[in-house]
Design brief:
single chain, mainly alpha, 9 helices, 75% helix, elongated
């Protein structure tokens, strides 16, 4: 990790630590740089705003997810690896959700999945894709808030079973 990456990480860590106890709207750049032990110039050299830190974090997660998608051989393995990533990032994801970022996260995920599906010729029924993504998103949020009590493999089975044989009907 180079110097700039270390400074970015210090700033990101400081913001998430502060967000454990405070709303983002009341956190100041001064608090972030003091917590990160970096200069104000370093902050503005690397970020435009507090929100930019969060956007960059989410962008990094999405890149990690696409790396998983490219590297995994089966849909089940992709899903399991993505859930393991979510479990690894649990504390930060829960902070973002508690701060009210669930809509932004879901919109971002929907947009990225739609782009991916269109680029790969997999966007035949986009509404079905939204149903699955929304359902999985809600399940993962609940899982994260409940300290990931089920294993990633258990969640994969639940998702797979639900998609194969839903327990609900609109008839």
């Amino acid at each position: 990790m180079n110097y700039v990456e270390k400074v970015d990480m210090k700033i990101e860590n400081a913001l998430f630590t502060l967000m454990e106890d405070q709303r983002l709207s009341v956190i100041t750049v001064t608090q972030i740089v003091q917590k990160a032990k970096v200069s104000r110039a370093s902050f503005y050299r690397n970020f435009c705003s507090r929100e930019d830190i969060i956007k960059r974090y989410i962008d990094g997660l999405i890149l990690d997810i696409f790396d998983i998608i490219r590297a995994s051989d089966t849909p089940e393995q992709r899903l399991k690896d993505i859930l393991l990533l979510a479990e690894e990032e649990r504390s930060r994801l829960v902070i973002l959700l508690k701060q009210g970022y669930e809509i932004e996260l879901l919109q971002f995920i929907n947009r990225e999945i739609l782009n991916f599906a269109q680029k790969n010729g997999k966007a035949k029924n986009i509404n079905s894709l939204y149903v699955y993504v929304g359902g999985i998103f809600n399940l993962v949020i609940n899982w994260l808030f409940n300290d990931c009590q089920d294993t990633a493999a258990d969640l994969c089975r639940i998702i797979s079973d639900t998609m194969d044989n839903p327990d609900f009907s609109f008839n």
